[in-house]
Amino acid sequence: MYLTIKETADFLSMPESHVKALIGQKKIRALFDGEQYLINKEQFNRHFDHVEEVKRMIEEWRNEPIPEDPDIKDED
Questions:
Q1: C-alpha to C-alpha distances, 53 to 29, 48, 50, nearest whole angstrom
Q2: Does the N-terminal or the C-terminal CB of the chain have fewer CB atoms within 10 Å?
Q3: Where are the domains of the chain?
Q4: Is a pLDDT exceeding 80 seen at residue 5?
Q5: What is the pTM of this model?
Q6: Quick one: CA dihedral 51, 52, 53, 57, positive or negative?
Q7: Which of 18, 20, 10, 16 is CA-nearest to residue 41?
């Protein structure tokens, strides 16, 4: 499914000018049909899936207990 710049801005909750800038920087892939840019919505779904996976991995890493180091000496 293809979205216009306005629909993409609404979908991503950002201003249209920022979406246009990202298209210009080639951070968002878009097709120009002669009148307007069309953006494939699927590229964002994969991005959001990847972001969620990275968040999950970071949370697992943060919850991992710190192993005790046998070389640490008590200085008391």
A1: 22, 9, 5
A2: C
A3: 2-63
A4: yes
A5: 0.62
A6: positive
A7: 10
| Nearest of 70, 76, 12 to residue 43 by alpha carbon | 12
- With beta carbons less than 8 A apart as the criterion, state whether 12 and 44 touch: yes
**Residue 25: per-residue pLDDT:** 93
Query: DSSP secondary structure string, the chain?
Result: -EE-HHHHHHHHTS-HHHHHHHHHTTSS-EEE-SSSEEEETHHHHHHHHHHHHHHHHHHHHHHSPPPPPTT-----
The CATH number that domain 2-63 falls under is: 3.90.105
Q: In this predicted structure, what is the pLDDT of residue 76?
A: 58
| 69 vs 20: CA distance, rounded Å | 52
